[in-house]
Amino acid sequence: MAAAMERSLIEICGFERETASRFRDVTVNLDLSPSPGGVKYPDSAGGFYYEESGKLLSVTSNRFIYWSTSGDTVQLVEQSLDTNLLNNAVRLKILHCSLLPGGVHIQETLNNVIILIVTSQSIHCMVLPHPSRMYRSDLVTELQMQSIFTDVGKLRLQDPAHSYLLSGALGVPTACPSTSAAWLSHQGEAHFALASASGGIMVVTLPPHDSQGTVSVVELKQSSVMQRLAGWMPTAIRGDQSPSDLALSLAVRHLEDDTFIFALCQDHKLRMWSYKEQLCLMVADMLDYLPVGRGEVKSSPGQGHRLRLSFSASTGLCIGVYLGLPKRGQFCLLQLVATENNRYSLDHISTVFSTQETLVDFSLTSTDIWALWMDDDNQTVVKYINFEHNVAGLWNQVFVQPLPEEEVHFGIDQDPRETYLDVLFSPLRFTASAIVKALQIYKRGTERFLDLSWDALRKEVTLAVENELQSSVTEYEFSQEEYRQLQVEFWSKFYACCLQYQEALSTPLGLHINMATSMVCIIRKGFVSYLLPCFAVDHLYLSADEYLFSEDETPVAEDPEMGRDVLQLVLCLRLVSECVQGDMAYEMEKALEHLLSPERAAEQVLDSLLANDNDNVIEDIQNKLQDIRNPTAAMAVLLREMDLETDTEAGTEGLDTGRSLSVRISLSQLYGSSVAVSVVCQAVCQVTMTRALFCRDLLILQQLYLRLGDNVFLGGGVQLLQLQQDLIPRCSHLLCSYYLLKHVSQSLSSSVPVDALDANLQHLSVLELSDSPAMAPSQTVLNPQTVVELFYQNVARKAIVSQIFSQQDAQSAQAPLHWPQMVSSVITLLCQLLWPSNPGFRFPECLMGNCQYTQLQEYVRLLGPWCQVNVGSCRFILGQCYLATGEGHKALSCFQQAATEVEKEDFLMRLVGAENDEAGATAPRLQYYNKVLRLLEDVGLPELVIQLATLAISEAVNDTRSQAALWTRIFKHHLDLGHNSQAYEALIQNPDPSRQLDCLRQLVVVLCERSQLQHLVQFSYVNLHDEVVGIIESRARAVDLLSHNYYELLYAFHINRHNYRKAGTVMFEYGMRLGREVRTLHGLQKQVNCYLAALNCLRLIRPAYAWIIQPSPGAVYERPGTSPKRNHDGEFAAASGSRQIEILELKDLEKEYTLARSRLTLAQHDQSSAAIAGSASAAEMVALLVQAGLFDTALSLSQTFKLPLTPVFEGLTYKCIKLQYGGEQTQNEAWNWLAANQLSTIITTKESSATDEAWRLLGSYLEAHPSQNAQHHRCVINKLLSHGAPLPDWLVHAYKAVDAAALLRLYLNYDQLESAAELVLEYVDALLGKGHQYFGIERPLSATAPLVWLPYTSIDQLLLSLREGQANAKIYDKLRAKLEEYHRLVETSSRRRLLNQ
């Protein structure tokens, strides 16, 4: 903003937007009865500022108290511009006691803040803690602080220590005091100077609050000094004092060791009393300073006189006297001068005249008089004047905020309801309390609206008016125009009600001037407003005509000639402004809102003005234009003053460079309270509104210049060309800029749910912008905030304060905080931060960080056609908005448009610059695409990721690394979307082998998990065949066999490519792992199927090639990423040597299949044995099968692996023995395993038992599986004999026909002597020819037969055993005889054989 400043000020109202009352009510009951016909005092207000409120490092920095009185109530509010104060407002109600005008006096001590209150019947002293004692540390870092009023409810204000009743000393009631003054002595005593209605001044003194004492009362009068310990002196004994010396206004000042009480009396005289001496030291007649009319004034008593004091070290004590004379008023400025012998006189400094009627309040500083009036139209008037150096006597202007318009203008295309609501809830027009009161009246007081949010209040207003409208409608049908008229009628009624209450709340009560910071406030009935310096351009546009005529120069132009041209041009602009009202103003507003050409709209407005120039205003303007010597130069000066464009971004310096911690903390809080935020941002709104009107009128005037052409241009065509090509476009651009700033300064922010803020923060962290100060979500205090307030509070304030104080030296922290200078700088820098043509982009960043998407979209829309700065950044931000609202395709379009500006704009460069160092070689645009792709991925829009990545690839022609990353992204999202073919195509296009391999691995895994194996097998995998096989193999060996089917996939992969040997190898390895890892029935079943598949594969190959390589034992494969193995000592184990390769042929696979099949058979018979059978060898499996009774399977397995059948026969024999001696249960259980074995024959002739069937099975096995020397029979017999079981006859007959000697030995081994003897007898008989066929003897003993033999060793052993036992004597003899007979026959046969030879 322009540096040129004027002496005028502008009022900014700090409207609250909370409906809930912030006041805490405290009632003081003094047990007084209301006085009959009590005096009605006018409402009043005032303020107090802390001595150190102008010091940055003080806890009371920018802190003050203001108060207002009404009837028996006083409202006290402590306010801070830096920190939000809690419990800072209290409403004190003193029953039946009216507050005197100006009856509140506040002073501070080192430890306390003392509030002295004077009412019609009492005085009060409130002792509150000083802020510096509430917060001992200088480092106050809280965002909120407790006010001194926090514990006011704990004070017992009716106690004698805090209050005193002004009753008559003898019990006689006295008249109420008319005015008062109060002060605190150095000893802590509270003194109250009271002027009674009948004259006289009484001084009531309360003892110090921290000590015991009595109340004293002193009466000051000219004849004598009387003192009583309590109460007022009755009027009857007071002496000869006439009402003429009634004090209308009192003031007190402590000088040196005395306290002086100044009384401005009804007789127009100023009296000065010494409290120490209790004497009147001086009487001065104020009429002496009246230039004319003293006589007529002197005869009438004064009524509206006011008195103020001001003290400064340079000028001493100044006394300001306002003489409220009929139809005129004047201020007399006097200086108190001390002479010899304790005498005093007054020196006249200045007399200032005023024509205003009703003075509300005035304040006096060391240089200025500030006055507050109400004019005849009840409009507030504030002015100030320097009483020392103002020769012309011209007051400086204060542009007071006018009341809202009495009528709301809206176009035919606008909805009346929305228009009225926008006006009512605009941040600048109505307070929440005015709307709430109007709503209660409108609803006839049926409800109380407390603690409503701003949005809720808006809804309540809408419902109230609409319900009223609906209830008044009696007809069911009426036209749209009739309904519109009804809306206007009811909404205007409610609006008038709001206007009435807003006017009441705007009633001015007093002025507050903070001498420490030079801040001036107007205290109104419902709110406090602040006076800010007015910038030069705004001053020119807002000033009254008489002020413009009186100005010979202006700060906007150094050259006097140029200054006069500028003033003349502004006069013309004011005439244009008066003409452009109502519909024409709306047309210009609508053109800006709808992004139409401002120049074209100005032409149309000018046409309307020319067509309806009934008052010859345009002619007056033309006449004034003739007086402007160089209009283009004057326009250029004004445009330059309004242009806020800067080359650098504000607030780039940090707060912590070379400053102490306390200074940094204080600067971080400066102007950070909700009040300061509201005032600063409403000032920005006011400035932008004024500037927008200024630019509008200037643009219309420029169009008029074009129409007039050479008639007003002395320079001819050159100036006309400059106007057309330079000045009009610049003015149009400024108009659009200020309209935009006006719009955003009035746009309310939206409340955002916490989850939306969290989601937005996640998106910003993806962009690596979450640490940016502009992106930090707000911790709002105002409810609701405008978006500019949101920006200022969270981002702009710290940047602005940083820039202001970075330009000052280290002593700047000790310098006073000068409010006019500071707030002007703050407003200037804030406007520059908001200015759309500046390079900074913090405002849109802040809106994005706080999820203000609707406001941000409108901001970008209004920028679109005319702003050429940060175009790409705006598109990017708009894309963010579309993402948040679910319009992904629009967002993608915006992101693509922003890409062209990546290397040109700071925000986008910062966005790209956040990439890591590895991306240094990547083009900025590709880095930008990467950020956006991450954002789209985080939001969950894979289709848009694919589109943008495809676009990015076209720009990464020479960047293989970026291409690979982009193709990888495309592959990933195609795969996630189920676009398998497109994912495969992206994989093939990837130029990076490692990324290609990663994608391939992911493709395999995902398609397997989705069971989309058909796609996986059918892809061609050009140049990637071995990699695919390797990936599937590694996955197959790495994952659980039951949850994934990678082996089956690999088998299908090889079968599809007719690679049968590989397919067989895969299935054989699969079967091996199943047997080792999945020892369940299901696993065994799959193992059998795997071995079958492997066999089928090898049978499809020519026999010469029907072999595979044995997979490594244990299935231990080195996989990428596995940790190295260590030995017991923790050392790395040595790498195992190359293992020997083993070739497996078809027969080897068949053997494995048989073993697997037998395992399955066993598991099917007994599932509990599956875990054991899974790892059992062939020999172990035979034992397990025999144990389970699966003898057929056991025999088959034994034959396949060429194992002895002995275990099978022994096992079956044992089961037969168990059946032989078992019970019925054993018989029943036997049928289970008998059924699992196939018997050779079936006997149907008789019922067969399980035992019979078992023996039959054994017999069939012995018959089907003959062995050398009948070893199977022998093992069976051995088993039977070992268990003491009798030998079946069929078994004995079968074995003795093969090997009778072995049978004999078995009998002897088990001590079966009788059976052995019987066998020997039979065998001897067989040799002798009796039953020789049963022993396998072809020819018995004879001379011609072959040689025969007997097992003599066994027979001798038998004979020995028989001989030793007495019980076997007969058998022994019989056997002995048989042997002797045999020997005889052998001898005979031998001789015959010898003879025959």
UniProtKB/TrEMBL annotation:
* NUP160 middle TPR domain mapped to chain residues: 835-1100
The record's subcellular location field reads:
Nucleus
Listed under GO cellular component are: nuclear pore
Domain Nucleoporin Nup120/160 beta-propeller as annotated: residue spans: 63-537
The record's section on Pfam families has:
Beta-prop_Nup120_160, NUP160_helical, TPR_NUP160_120_M, TPR_Nup160_C
Q: Does the keyword Nucleus apply?
A: yes
Q: Which GO terms describe its molecular function?
A: structural constituent of nuclear pore
Instruction: Write down the InterPro entries for this protein, in alphabetical order.
Output: Beta-prop_Nup120_160 (IPR059141), Nucleoporin_Nup160 (IPR021717), NUP160_helical (IPR056547), TPR_NUP160_C (IPR056536), TPR_NUP160_M (IPR056535)
Is Nucleus tagged as a keyword? yes
Task: Name the domain of life this protein comes from.
Answer: Eukaryota
Which ranges carry the NUP160 C-terminal TPR domain?
A: 1145-1391
Q: Where is the NUP160 helical domain?
A: 559-791
What keywords appear on the UniProt entry? Nucleus, Transport
Q: What is this protein called?
A: Nuclear pore complex protein Nup160
Q: Which organism is it from?
A: Denticeps clupeoides (denticle herring)
